[in-house]
Specification:
By secondary structure, the chain is α/β, with parallel strands linked by helices. Helix content is 22%, strand content 24%. The protein has a single domain, classed as 4-Layer Sandwich (Metallo-beta-lactamase, Chain A), CATH 3.60.15.10.
Length: 287
């Protein structure tokens, strides 16, 4: 994150009683590989729900990579190679703005793209990815795909839908296929730090249970409205139900329907100890 942006973010946080205590970084050049501070978790947000996480152990997880045609993704990251090395890909559901670049990224790095069981069944059946690059797992399931002492990932409920639009090469026409049930991901780092990437979701009562049971330190929460929570809904989920230490708003400002703003989210949160970081695409933080 450049210095001016960090100052603006910190000022907004202080204004709402959310003083920041995390480390900001300058944007990495397109050719650079991700390098998290030792012992820290680096989170790079690239617009909409696209996120790159570098774990304290140096593993790189890319979530919901819509980059090449995403109007909010910085130009340098529209080249998939600019992400550097990738060890794992997670996709929360089959909609284009979360799924678009995941198959090509999986093939580029020869790494698995984990997603909802129904979505990856369709991906393999349609030949979008080979079975070995489209492993299935479902809500409530926990995987450790990077080794027995590595990151733990649990699929959680999300209140949304999931369809895959696929162009049939035989007819050159788009077809819509079921994409399983949408999910969020609880990602526990090697040092125990937990992130809940919520994907796309409306407000639902079990957010409180998920918060109490998994105790995420950081949430990446959609605030755009229309297809996902509004800033007001997201504030209720964050402050009253999940109660994390930190929150990063995502999935807003990309299309005209996603009208929610970080200022509205901060206002709705009110006076709370939860630290909210209104990032710009291409900004990154260490936790």
């Amino acid at each position: 994150m450049n210095t001016q942006i960090f100052k603006q973010a910190a000022a907004l946080a202080v204004a709402f009683g959310l003083a920041a205590n995390l480390t900001a970084h300058a944007q990495a050049p397109a050719s650079a590989s991700p390098t998290a501070t030792p012992g820290k978790t680096e989170v790079l947000w690239l617009g909409q729900a696209a996120t790159r996480i570098t774990t304290p152990g140096g593993k790189v997880i890319v979530i919901d990579p819509w980059l090449r045609t995403n109007p909010k993704t910085p130009a340098q990251y529209k080249d998939l190679a600019a992400l550097g090395k990738v060890d794992l890909i997670l996709v929360t559901h089959g909609h284009f703005d979360h799924f678009a670049d995941a198959p090509d990224l999986a093939k580029m790095h020869k790494v698995p793209m984990y997603g909802p069981a129904g979505m990856n069944s369709a991906v393999a059946t349609l030949g979008i990815l080979p079975v070995e690059l489209a492993p299935r797992f479902g809500k409530g399931g926990t995987i450790m795909p990077l080794g027995p002492n590595g990151v733990k990932i649990t699929a959680t409920h999300a209140e949304h839908s999931s369809e895959i639009v696929w162009k049939n090469p035989a007819t050159n026409k788009d077809e819509t296929h079921p994409g399983g049930e949408p999910v969020g991901f609880i990602i526990e780092m090697e040092n125990g730090f937990k992130i809940w990437h919520m994907g796309d979701s409306g407000l639902f009562g079990d957010m409180k249970f998920i918060g109490e049971y998994y105790k995420p330190d950081l949430i990446l929460i959609p605030i755009g409205g229309h297809f996902v929570m509004s800033p007001e809904d997201a504030a209720v989920a964050t402050r009253d139900m999940i109660k994390p230490k930190f929150a990063i708003p995502i999935h807003y400002g990309t299309t005209p329907q996603l009208r929610g703003t970080t200022a509205e989210f901060a206002k709705a949160l009110g006076n709370t100890s939860i630290k909210m970081f209104p990032l710009n695409p291409g900004d990154k933080l260490d936790f």
